[in-house]
Design brief:
8 helices, globular, Nucleotidyltransferase, domain 5, alpha/beta, 6 strands
Length: about 240
């Protein structure tokens, strides 16, 4: 079982959305899935639902979500509280996380419900750093590379199940490369590592991840580079 340094996030919320288009401001979420997972990426619970978007479903040839399939589905405001409960207190994980985050943020805003995501992890960004020997970094390609089952592409739940396997394998690969050094338990080094994870990329919700090194010019590890908090700066270390 994957062992992560003390103080790292204990829980993940893996997310995938299928949408009516590519614009989070104009298009809507048609279906979503959230899989909660423990620190090692092992799934703990699954939730998925179709949604009534109130607009044309868009590229049906990609996602297969016709008007007939979506008829009778709840609108997002009816499931917003449930989704918020699954996201709260967890690191949101998605493949191309900016896309899923932006669409979910738009749906939460329309529903008038705060979106409880403080940090996110992008498995696409992580694998750009890990650079596996694959022709591309698509979800299906990475699933095949890591030996993860992926039954149906563009199915929110199936994509999220595959994402869980990719997360576990990617974290294991990063750990094998000493991307997650094990600091002394309970020491200032432990707290400093956690703060490094939360300070490497200082993003607003609308920002795009682009940093590849720390503010001091030192190269950062793959895992450190893809944690994305919305706050500015770590707390000052307390006296030893």
């Amino acid at each position: 079982m994957l062992s992560l340094p003390a103080g790292l996030p204990a829980n993940w919320a893996l997310v995938d959305v299928e949408t009516s288009g590519l614009s989070a401001s104009r298009d809507r979420v048609l279906s979503l899935a959230v899989v909660t997972a423990g620190a090692d990426g092992t799934p703990l619970s699954e939730y998925t639902t179709l949604l009534d978007p109130g607009v044309d479903p868009g590229p049906v040839h990609i996602h297969g979500l016709t008007r007939d399939r979506l008829r009778g589905a709840p609108t997002f405001d009816r499931v917003a509280a449930r989704v918020a409960d699954l996201l709260a207190g967890r690191v949101m994980v998605a493949h191309n996380a900016q896309f899923d985050y932006s669409f979910l943020a738009g749906e939460f805003a329309r529903a008038g419900v705060p979106m409880p995501v403080e940090r996110r992890l992008c498995t696409l960004a992580l694998n750009r750093r890990l650079a596996p020997p694959t022709p591309d970094l698509r979800l299906g390609t990475l699933a095949a590379h890591y030996g993860v089952p992926h039954a149906r592409a563009h199915d929110a739940l199936e994509d999220t199940r595959a994402l869980a396997g990719i997360l576990r394998a990617s974290l294991a690969e990063a750990r094998a490369r000493r991307a997650l050094p094990e600091p002394e338990s309970g020491s200032l080094a432990t707290r400093a590592l956690v703060w490094r994870l939360t300070e490497v990329i200082m993003l607003s919700p609308a920002a795009t991840p682009r940093a590849t090194s720390s503010s001091r010019g030192a190269r950062v590890s793959p895992v450190m580079a893809i944690f994305m908090p919305w706050t500015r700066g770590p707390p000052a270390p307390s006296p030893a």
